[in-house]
Each structure stands twice: as C-alpha cells, then as structure tokens.
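Holo prediction — 3-(1H-indol-3-yl)-2-oxopropanoic acid.
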Amino acid sequence: MRIFCIFRCCLVALVMVAIFALSIPASAATTLSYANFPPAKTFPCVQMERWKTEVEKRTAGKIKIQTYPGSTLLGAKNTLRGVMAGQADIGCISLAYHPGVFPLCSVMELPLGFTSSTSASLALWELFQKYNPKEFKRVKVLTMFASAPSNIMSKVPVRSLADLKGLEVRASGILSSILDSLGATPVSMPMSETPESLQKGVVKGLFSSFEVLKDFNFAEICRYETETNAAVYPFAVIMNLRTWNSLSDDVKKVLTDLGREQAEWTGNYMDKHVEEALKWSKEKYGIEIIKLSESDQAEMSKRTAPLIEDWKKISSAKGVDAEAVLNFVESKKTKYEPSR
Ligand code: 3IO
C-alpha cells in the first residue's frame, strides 16, 4: 500500500514537471495582434503578412503576430483609437480617413506628382524620420507607405473634365477635395465601404490606385478607367505605446531596422501589382483606359494648385513648417522618382 502511494506521488510529480516543461516554450513567445481594415488580398494586408513573416523569422520565435484582415478586429476609422487604447497591439491606418489629425503627413495627399508607390513610400518614411511629427506622439510608428497614384474608375466614361461634372465619386481626405476642385461630387468613405456603395449606386466610381480593379474586382462594375495620376494615399502602421515599451531591446531593434525596408518592399509590390491588375482587367473585362487631353491635364493642375496653398495655411496654423516640409518632399521626389 505504502509503496503504491510513493509510486503514485512520483507519477503525479513527473506529470507536473512534464506539464511545466512543455509550457515554457509557449510562454516565452509574445503574441501581438495586428488589425487591418481591408480584405486579405489587398495590398495593406499583403504587406502585413510579409511584415509578420519577417518579424517572426528575425526575432527567432520570440514574437508571434496574429493578423486580423478585413476589419475583423478593428475597422477603418477606429483602428487609430483602438491601437491607442490597446484593443490591438498593431494597426494599419489610411491617414486620409482622419482629416485634420495628421497636419504634417497629410502633405502626401496633395497633388505633388508622384508617379509610383515606391517613390512616395520612401519619401513619406523619410519625411516621418526627419520631422518625427507630434501628430503621432501617442503611438509608435513601425513603417509607412503610400498607394500608387490615384485615377478615376467609373461606371460611365469620363473622357473629359466636363464628363466629371456632378459625378458622385468615392475618395477620402484631401483626395476628396481634389475631386471637388475638378467639378465632381466627392463622397468620402473608407475603401472598405466602397464595394457596397458602388453596388447600390450611391457612387458611380472611385478615386484610388488601379490595383483595386483586381483586388476588389471593381473592374467588373467600373469598366472605364481615366488616368489622372493624381495624389497618393499615405498609410501608417502603428503600435500601442505600452506594447512597444514592453518589448526587449533586441526585438525593438528588429522592428526599427525593418521600417524603411518594409516601406520600400510595399512600394515595389504595389507598383508591380498595378501593372498586373490592369492587364488582368483588360483580359477579363475589356476595360477602357482613357487619357485626358493636354488641355484638360493643364486645367487639372491649375484647379488643384490652390489645395497646396490651403494645406500650407491649415498645417501652419498647427505649427508645421509648411514650406520646409513641402521642399523636403519635393527633394525626395526628385531623388526617388524613376528618371524618364
Ligand atoms: C487602398 C485602401 C485599401 C485597400 C486597397 C487600397 N488601394 C489603395 C488604397 C488607398 C485608398 O483609396 C484608401 O482609401 O485608403
């Protein structure tokens, strides 16, 4: 009886040690949540999965990232607050969904003539590094990037600025003001609400980069694509500050080192994907690409130029050295634009 009791005690102890040992590797890894608003196959989520893979590899299993695409954790407009409050550790935001909140970085929404996502993404990242603007002081910025230049995708052909008059077109932020200055009727909403609005006919088109023709299948409903190569949409990937402060120095270094690389990777991915999406849309739906006349292009520059002056006034009132910021972005554009 006694021997049996000792044996049983040993067995219990052994099982407990085994459970403890097994639990060590699990508790050594920290899992961070990452919220993203658009569907999984769109570019903000493609870059999220790439970032996750690199972080998990480079931290050798210390950090695991649980990704939540398609607004499954936080939506387009509440990701900023949600990350500040700790509802998610990390989140991806489109700055144009928060008018007035980012007086400095909103410079990237202006019609500055960027022709690629890569050059705009690098300019945005370096702008942030240089000014470290206080508009982001309540979060840690991990990386930034920008969409490719925006164009009009519509159900009806827009062959001239005259055709745009009164047309309801979806955009956000300063890009809505660009549409307004061209005579369209802008309807501001996040990209994630656009499929339904197009379906219901609330809007007749959208103003964004061309890769969405494939990724949202917008080519099916918007057969006319008018090239404007207008402004880009700037994005930021932000982390909760308490989460950031809880990370070890070696993990912080991995994330810091990845910032610029990720901006460039995303730009390259986007620029290639725009080409692919256009080819796909032509083959599958026979979309028509429309170029505006020289005189309409000149008229566009003339009508949108005051938006730059407006931005200067608004950002200066919030303490931004507007002239210096614009000059900085122009110099980066010259540096990174593919020479033609
Ligand atoms: C965008 C946003 C979500 C998914 C794909 C996208 N491609 C371009 C954008 C930028 C944009 O239109 C926006 O609303 O942020």
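READOUT: The chain has a mean pLDDT of 94.
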